[in-house]
């Protein structure tokens, strides 16, 4: 018995004896047979029975095998219906004619049973394979349709979130080319309540959907926070933390973020992992590079993340250029990269009247001969007068939304608290709730820490810094600190914080009062930073970091005024 | 928060790493990290990579280490400072006393 599935096989032969022999052979193999006597009948039977395979005599009355084969192939369409010609013709031309007419093979008369059997089997296999391929092709096509449909909808959502913000402003030129429907590069831009423009160019590892997905939380944090008046550092930290949290290891975002202040004519910029940006001076044509000095976003946890920025003064007409590595890594036909030197050279060719922005795009495009293998983004920001960027109807007063704005706080710490609790993180956590103040948290920590240890150690505990003149004294001082805190029964340190909004920033008034007797503050208040001795550096430190420091009354009360600006 | 220290294989360098806030509470550990050694190394490296803040008592502790290591002839590098930490060191003119990177 044949192991193949039973097929329906159409046999068309006008010679009765030949047809009967063939029928017998095929039936014996377990297949169902439909027999007809000429080409015309063969076509009708094909339509009625839809056989899996056709055995056609070449020469028949009414319509010969060649004509029938053509018609049957046409009717079969994309389905593979193997046609085997039965012929006593042996000349090359006739055999070729069989195949030309759409036949898949031929079988010479008289029939060899073994060969016939083998051919049916072979064509049955081919037919199965063909069906398989067709099914898979249809599946792929339908999956692809589905995917495209999903991507189109997702892309709408994506574009609504990662929209281009204020990139249509007069001083901005940008180019963003997607390799796929989604883009691994992201540009977001918004005008801050204070009137400066914040722009972030990011390049996620990879491209397409996996890369683009990270752009959504980035953009939603960015737009949400810029609008609320958070500082660049706050936004950087938030975006970094969010990406770190959600992206798998190995996926991160190289980014440059810039805050362009049109009133003060300066920029504050942070580059983590993107190629050097350029500041192109309008007056001299000189180029200054802005190097990447940080790790990309989404790599470090918040504690290790470094948010120090570069501050650059810009004259009217000076331009800032930022790009993703797609520009530099564009390849020509022989696989060489465009490279930084070519890019740099574009800024030197003063002869050309064409603006640098267009020159860069054209050069890269020409160089790559239309081929592209990475997302390619370019942005040009020009320093202009504020009125050119901001709608003049807009209220210039800083508008702030959310967060702590004007507030005051009193906190009094008593003995059991001194022993168990460090109030500094608590106070700092409250302070960084003020939008924009987070970037000053280092300074604020220092101020609070120094004020607190002075109030506690000298005021409440009555410890004397003069002990700290020797290593042994230093150790004794802190041993004694512990002993006295543990034994303490009364006393307090009182913090009074008062914050007022002012311009882009605010004024924080910190008053610390202790239960101690005070000290002779007039005498050593003007100490400057010194090189000798193990103590006495706290007050000079505070003085450097704040706007004013003064002791009040007997010296058990100190007031520090810290003025801050969202741009700093 | 904590202090970790390690002497290089050749015994020539002591690396002291400070995690978290560097303030008076680290005093004992910081002091132990160099005083407990039987043989003093030629150079010291204070790694601030994981240091979030430091206060004026920490400045005093760095000076204790400097004097312990020979005062003006001490070879002490302070490395991997965050901008906040570096700022405090700079304001206090510590780059005149230490190699700060």
**Main interface by residue count:** A-B, 30 and 29 residues
Please bin the fraction of helical residues of chain B: 25-40%
The number of distinct helices of chain B, counting runs of at least 4 residues, comes to 3
Oligomer: heterodimer
For the record, the CATH class of the largest domain in chain A is: Alpha Beta
N-to-C SSE string of chain B, H for helix and E for strand: EEHEEHEHE
N-end to C-end Cα span of chain B: 22 Å
Q: Which whole number gives the mean pLDDT of chain B?
A: 89
- The CATH topology of chain B is Transcription Regulator spoIIAA
* Helix-strand makeup class of chain B: alpha/beta
Mean pLDDT of chain A: 86
- The fraction of residues assigned to DSSP E strands of chain B is 25-35%
Total DSSP helices of chain A: 18
Short description, anyone?
The complex is a heterodimer of chains A (568) and B (101). Chain A is α+β, with helices and mostly antiparallel strands.
Please explain how this structure is put together.
The complex is a heterodimer of chains A (568) and B (101). With 568 residues, chain A is α+β, with helices and mostly antiparallel strands. Chain A has helices at residues 16-28, 39-49, 65-76, 92-100, 113-161, 209-212, 215-227, 232-246, 325-328, 339-348, 356-368, 386-389, 415-420, 423-431, 441-460, 471-487, 521-524, 538-545, and strands at 8-12, 32-36, 53-57, 83-87, 105-108, 172-177, 185-191, 197-204, 253-261, 266-272, 277-280, 287-290, 310-313, 319-323, 376-382, 407-413, 493-502, 505-514, 548-552, 557-564. In chain A, strand 9 (253-261) and strand 10 (266-272) form a beta hairpin. Chain A is elongated. In chain B, helix 1 (27-35) links the parallel strand 2 (13-22) and strand 3 (43-47). In chain B, strands 1, 2, 3, 4, 5 and 6 form a 6-stranded mixed sheet that branches. Chain B has one domain: Transcription Regulator spoIIAA (2-Layer Sandwich). By secondary structure, chain B is of the alpha/beta class. Chain B has helices at 27-35, 56-68, 83-91; strands at residues 2-7, 13-22, 43-47, 51-54, 76-79, 99-100. The chains are: A alpha+beta (568), B alpha/beta (101).
């Amino acid at each position: 018995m044949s192991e193949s599935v039973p097929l329906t096989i159409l046999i068309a032969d006008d010679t009765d004896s030949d047809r009967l022999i063939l029928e017998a052979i095929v039936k014996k193999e377990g297949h169902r047979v439909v027999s007809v006597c000429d080409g015309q009948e063969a076509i009708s039977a094909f339509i009625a029975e839809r056989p899996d395979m056709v055995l056609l005599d070449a020469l028949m009355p009414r319509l010969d095998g060649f004509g029938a084969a053509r018609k049957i192939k046409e009717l079969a369409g994309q389905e593979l219906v193997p046609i085997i010609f039965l012929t006593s013709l042996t000349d090359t031309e006739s055999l070729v004619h069989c195949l030309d007419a759409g036949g898949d093979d031929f079988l010479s008369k008289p029939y060899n049973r073994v060969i016939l059997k083998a051919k049916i089997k072979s064509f049955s296999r081919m037919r199965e394979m063909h069906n398989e391929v067709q099914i898979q092709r249809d599946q792929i096509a339908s999956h692809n349709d589905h995917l495209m449909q999903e991507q189109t909808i997702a892309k709408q959502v994506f574009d609504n979130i990662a929209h281009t913000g204020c990139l249509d402003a007069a001083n901005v030129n940008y180019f963003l080319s997607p390799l796929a429907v989604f883009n691994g590069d992201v540009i977001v831009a918004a005008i801050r309540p204070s009137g400066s423009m914040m722009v972030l160019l990011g390049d996620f590892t990879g491209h397409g959907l996996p890369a683009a997905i990270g752009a959504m939380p980035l953009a939603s944090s960015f737009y949400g926070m810029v609008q609320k008046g958070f500082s660049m550092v706050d936004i950087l930290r938030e975006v970094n933390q969010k990406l770190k949290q959600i992206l798998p290891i190995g996926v991160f975002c190289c980014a440059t973020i810039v805050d362009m202040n049109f009133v003060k004519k300066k920029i504050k910029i942070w580059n983590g992992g993107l190629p050097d940006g350029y500041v192109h001076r309008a007056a001299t044509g000189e180029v200054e590079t802005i190097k990447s000095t940080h790790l990309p976003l989404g790599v470090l946890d918040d504690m290790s993340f470094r948010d120090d920025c570069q501050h650059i003064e810009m004259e009217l007409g000076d331009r800032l250029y930022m790009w993703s590595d797609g520009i530099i890594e564009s390849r020509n036909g022989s696989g060489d990269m465009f490279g930084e030197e070519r890019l740099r050279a574009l800024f030197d060719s003063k002869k050309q009247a064409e603006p640098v922005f267009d020159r860069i795009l054209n050069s890269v495009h020409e160089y790559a001969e239309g081929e592209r293998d990475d997302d390619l983004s370019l942005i040009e920001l020009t320093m202009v007068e504020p009125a050119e960027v901001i709608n003049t109807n807009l209220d210039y007063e800083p508008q702030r939304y959310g967060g702590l704005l004007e507030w005051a706080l009193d906190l009094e710490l008593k003995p059991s608290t001194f022993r168990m609790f460090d109030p500094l993180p608590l106070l700092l956590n409250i302070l960084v709730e003020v939008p924009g103040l987070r970037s000053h948290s280092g300074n604020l920590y220092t101020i609070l820490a120094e004020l607190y240890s002075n109030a506690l150690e000298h005021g409440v505990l009555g410890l004397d810094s003069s002990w700290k003149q020797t290593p042994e004294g230093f150790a004794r001082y802190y041993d004694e600190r512990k002993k006295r805190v543990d034994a303490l029964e009364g006393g307090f340190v009182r913090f009074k914080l008062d914050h007022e909004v002012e311009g882009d920033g605010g004024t924080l008034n910190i008053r610390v009062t202790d239960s101690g007797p005070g000290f002779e503050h007039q005498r050593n208040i003007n100490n400057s930073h010194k090189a000798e001795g193990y103590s006495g550096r706290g007050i000079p430190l505070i003085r450097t970091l704040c706007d004013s420091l003064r002791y009040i009354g007997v010296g058990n009360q100190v007031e520090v005024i810290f003025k801050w600006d969202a741009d700093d | 928060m904590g202090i970790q220290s390690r002497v290089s294989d050749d015994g020539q360098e002591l690396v002291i790493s400070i995690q978290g806030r560097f303030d008076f509470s680290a005093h004992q550990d910081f002091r132990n990290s160099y005083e407990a050694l039987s043989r003093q190394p030629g150079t010291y490296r204070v790694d601030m990579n994981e240091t979030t803040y430091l206060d004026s008592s920490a400045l005093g502790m760095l000076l204790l280490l400097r004097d312990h290591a020979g005062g003006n002839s001490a070879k002490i590098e302070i490395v991997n400072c965050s901008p906040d930490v570096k700022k405090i060191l700079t304001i206090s003119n510590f780059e005149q006393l230490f190699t700060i990177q």
